[in-house]
UniProtKB/TrEMBL annotation:
<keyword id="KW-0812">Transmembrane</keyword>
<keyword id="KW-0645">Protease</keyword>
<protein>
    <recommendedName>
        <fullName>Lipoprotein signal peptidase</fullName>
        <ecNumber>3.4.23.36</ecNumber>
    </recommendedName>
</protein>
<feature type="transmembrane region" description="Helical">
    <location>
        <begin position="20"/>
        <end position="41"/>
    </location>
</feature>
<keyword id="KW-1133">Transmembrane helix</keyword>
<keyword id="KW-0378">Hydrolase</keyword>
<dbReference type="GO" id="GO:0006508">
    <property type="term" value="P:proteolysis"/>
</dbReference>
<keyword id="KW-1003">Cell membrane</keyword>
<dbReference type="GO" id="GO:0004190">
    <property type="term" value="F:aspartic-type endopeptidase activity"/>
</dbReference>
<keyword id="KW-0472">Membrane</keyword>
<feature type="active site">
    <location>
        <position position="158"/>
    </location>
</feature>
<comment type="function">
    <text>This protein specifically catalyzes the removal of signal peptides from prolipoproteins.</text>
</comment>
<dbReference type="Pfam" id="PF01252">
    <property type="entry name" value="Peptidase_A8"/>
</dbReference>
<comment type="pathway">
    <text>Protein modification; lipoprotein biosynthesis (signal peptide cleavage).</text>
</comment>
<comment type="similarity">
    <text>Belongs to the peptidase A8 family.</text>
</comment>
<keyword id="KW-0064">Aspartyl protease</keyword>
<feature type="transmembrane region" description="Helical">
    <location>
        <begin position="81"/>
        <end position="99"/>
    </location>
</feature>
Amino acid sequence: MSSKPRSSSSPRTDARPGRLLPWLALAFLIIVLDQITKILIVQRFQLGDGQVITGFFNLVRVHNTGAAFSFLAQASGWQRWFFIGLGFAASAMFIWMLRSHAEQRLFAFSVAMLLGGALGNVIDRAWHGHVIDFLQFHWDVLAPMFPGGYFPSFNLADCALTAGAIGLILDELLRVRRS
């Protein structure tokens, strides 16, 4: 049985596993690093404990049952399953995006970061019922927006999500500039 070659004008790119694999490996690396750091925090800190590292940075152990900035943290528990489902749906979309655009480096890097970050936090929600956050920054200039100038605590998965979002914005700006 022979297959017809794809037309070069086809909008969908060839989704060979070899092109997708580096991006999935990056997402997996993010998940592994995120989970290792969370395990280390859980082993060394009790909930609410912290250690001053610099004048503007602390390691802490915080549990977040909500989303970014503790959105819906005070809900009655349904948010855990909602955010797990949302994380899996987003991850499926990210994988589809990677399959379709694996050759676009900045775009694929950004989506892989989003995939790793989303799944890192989904694992926490499924395993613990909350996300473990541990990076805490504080500056006086933040005091008008955040109590005491303390930015909400976050983790490596959140860093990957932020890097992915910034990368997507940059990719779009560069794409618009080229056209």
